Amino acid sequence: MTKHPKLSSYQSGNKFPDENPKLHSERILSPRECEIIQGLSNDQNVKMIASKLHISPFTVQDHIKHIKCKMQVHTPGGIVAQALREGWIV
User: Fold this and answer.
1) How many C-alpha atoms does 49 have within 13 Å on its Cβ side?
2) Helix, strand, or coil here: 89?
3) What's the rounded Cα separation, in Å, for the pair 89 and 1?
4) pLDDT, tens digit, for every residue of 58-72?
5) Which end of the chain has the least Cβ crowding within 10 Å, N or C?
6) Degrees (nearest 5) of the Cα angle 69, 41, 8?
């Protein structure tokens, strides 16, 4: 799957254009979190994502935990499903 411009928009804080972005700063995705979502959407497991990004699998798991919290989902599949619904990935 490819990265959709809306994922970049969400990452930069433009997800809430009519609201004060400072109110939603905890929901802004970091560039690394966006890379993790890309990996998940490409059906890569934690070890594969870690290897590709040259980071520890434990770091990937931490990023996934933070993404789930920010996106208010409970599973990595939920991350991908919401990203698809929102049009962040295609």
Assistant:
1) 24
2) strand
3) 6
4) 999 999 999 999 999
5) C
6) 70
- The rounded distance, in Å, linking the Cα atoms of 34 and 37 is 5
Residue 64's nearest CA partner among 37, 87, 25, 30 is 37
Q: Where are the domains of the chain?
A: 5-12+32-86
Cβ-Cβ contacts under 8 Å for 25 (sequence gap 6 or more): 13
User: The domain at 5-12+32-86 falls in which architecture?
Assistant: Orthogonal Bundle (1.10)
Assessment of whether the complete model's pTM goes beyond 0.70: yes
- Residue 26's SS3 state is helix
User: 10: which 2 tokens?
Assistant: 């969400």
Query: Tell me: the pLDDT tens digits for 23-39?
Result: 344 568 999 999 999 99
Element (H, E) at 35: helix 31-41
Place of tokens 């995705």: 29
